[in-house]
Amino acid sequence: METRHWVLIGVVALLLAAIISYLILKYACRKPVANIWNYLFCIFFFWTWIFNIYETPKKRRERLKKAGVKEGQVIVDLGCGPGRFVFLAARLLGPQGKVYALDIHPLHTAIVAARAAIGGHKNVSVMHADCCATQLADEAIDLIFINDAFHEFDKIGCLKEAARILKADGILAIYEHEMKEAKFLDIVEGAKLFTLMEKEKRLYKFRPLREG
User: Fold this and answer.
1) 127 and 167 belong to one structural domain
2) Helix, strand, or coil here: 70?
């Protein structure tokens, strides 16, 4: 899908968010907010409040730490979206580490690239690529982090690529909220490429299986 199509989708999503916010505010106040600037101000704080309740930066940072992200590593945020975890990971990794922010959607990679440039994050490398063909070198990655995106991927293709680019002692960390656990584990373990190390709620950590 071309970039302009993703921009259009983004605009439609924003309009829907505005309409939903307006209806909620109207119901709460029993009348429309009179001043347009007050209305926009209320919308901004309403959605900021919603997203902060859902997943604060502190919660995201803790998820990265539980996934195994440590200073000096080279990691991949696979299906990084607009970068909700990318820059928190970059700070945890430090200047000697590196995070590859990889996504197939051009709008997402454009947003992450802009944020990296504005924030001066030199240890962030943005890649517009498919999860099944990352173009990264064999056994070059310490950790792959997938946050609630695995259900959207070509699962077997993704697992094969992850096994290729991970080091022998690397970690595949997947937070998966959409798929049922039994189905999710059947797919990953059925591919015979990874073995489950540990899990905490919906965060699963796997080690790659190596022949011999």
Assistant:
1) yes
2) coil
Burial call 141-178: b when 16+ CB within 10 Å, e when fewer: bbbbbbbbbbeebebeebbebbbbbbeeebbbbbbbee
Q: Across the beta sheet with 166-175, what order do the strands follow?
A: 124-128, 98-103, 74-78, 141-147, 166-175, 203-208, 194-200
* Whether 45 and 71 share a structural domain: no
DSSP conformation class of 199: E
Q: How far is CA 77 from the centre of its chain?
A: 6
3-class state of residue 189 by DSSP: helix
Q: How many CA atoms lie within 13 A of 212 on its CB side?
A: 1
Residue with tokens 């946050």: 147
62 and 139 fall within a common domain: yes
Scanning the chain, the segments in alpha helix (DSSP H) are 3-29, 36-54, 57-67, 86-93, 106-119, 155-165, 181-190
Q: What's the CA gap between 77 and 66, in Å, rounded?
A: 15
What is the domain count for the chain?
Answer: 2
Q: Cα–Cα distance between 80 and 90 in angstroms, integer? A: 13
pLDDT tens sequence across 104-154: 988 888 888 988 998 889 999 999 999 999 999 999 999 999 998 898 888
